[in-house]
Amino acid sequence: MVLEQPLAQPAGILGKRQKIGRAAASVESLRLLIVTQFFPPDFAATGQLIEELVQQLGRQDVKVRVFTGQPGYAFAKGSAPTVEQHGNVWVRRSRMAQLFPGRIRGKAINGLMYTLRAILHLLGRAYRYDVVLVTTAPPFLPVVAYLANLLLGLPYVCLLYDLYPDIAIELDVVKAHHPIAKLWRWINRQVWQRSSGIIVLSDSMKQRVAQSCPAIADKLSVIHSWSNPGQIVPIRKADNWFARKHRLIDPFVVMYSGNMGRCHDVDTIFAAAEKLRHEPILFVCIGGGAKRQPLIDRVAAAGLDNFLFLPYQEKAVLPYSLTACDLSLVSVAAGMESLVAPSKLYPAMATGRPVAAVCPPTSYLGPLLTAAQGGAVFDNGEGVALAQYILELSHNRDKAEALGAAGREYVQANFTPSVISQQYLQVLQTASKASM
């Protein structure tokens, strides 16, 4: 199958794209480029979600190319093939290795170098694509698609995982009136206004972006993250090798799996664990992040023995690690509810276990869990209430099972790869046709 047949140059500063090329694209398969720094074998959740998305789109006869970076967070692989093909999906990786990905400065340098490579890749190959889907991994990456559109007229859709500089401002890394913050917001507005569509992960994120740039309100689409309930299925702990390996069968296990970063609330979880220190309840934290080591230090200082810390798990292990619990935890720190949307919620619900969310009352997590009837929601700082809920479920396993089953059913109806990929495809097709 020919994926690189050149068409006329797209409209832009360097000239208008010929109409015959766009007309052909509207009839033939959509030719999509996805630009994102993270893609498997990286274990970053954003990359794993993109992999599932492109697999679904490829099955729908979309010709997908992914331009990504070399792995920086993989387990045993320091590099990956420069080019891979799986059916309609081609993956091309930058040849540049990641430098010190565990350090903030290293992450920034890696993101900048990848962005520069992405600019060169896209400007040299724009004629091969009908539309670009560009992520905010790294946060300044959408500038790449903006330049391709400005120079060559190639339409693009922004996928906003999180909102910068707002997160940096909320974390007090930079002041709201600092020149860097002002410049970043100005760039955001330019990028968003020139885009053909903007995908955000929650209604609260949509409201935040619309307030920041009212002119693009009609371009915003809310498309949730998802989980694959065909891969993550309920497994009894007694039948789960991961639970046996880590001695999780007997205690009531409360699991936090994923990034423990600056945007997440671990204080409320710690407070609940302190209240339950004498109960047969174990808190299992799988993953990493900026708040992981401080939490480990606090647990040690308090003399708590009801915590188990494990590293990130390979994707193949997730169906077992995620189901090796009786209750899953998801958290968002105060002030972050409209800036981030934890993707860990959806696989947690797919396990058939109830979910307890710790978040501000304005977070989208509350309405979603309420609609699913799959768990409970607690405000930041409500450690006592969270502890009481955990204790209640540990004494009422039937209720826990009913909540978990309801949550899984809700995911199966609303947040599967097949359902979500259709929503993406609609936005991408609309963006492609709008530029004709």
UniProtKB/TrEMBL annotation:
Key words, A-Z: Transferase
Biological processes annotated in GO: lipopolysaccharide biosynthetic process
Protein origin, superkingdom: Bacteria
Residue ranges annotated for the Glycosyl transferase family domain, each copy included: 250-409
Residue ranges constituting the Glycosyltransferase subfamily 4-like N-terminal domain according to the UniProt record: 49-223
CDD domains per the UniProt record, alphabetical: GT4_WbuB-like (cd03794)
PANTHER family: GLYCOSYLTRANSFERASE WBBK-RELATED
Protein name: Glycosyltransferase WbuB
Organism: Phormidesmis priestleyi
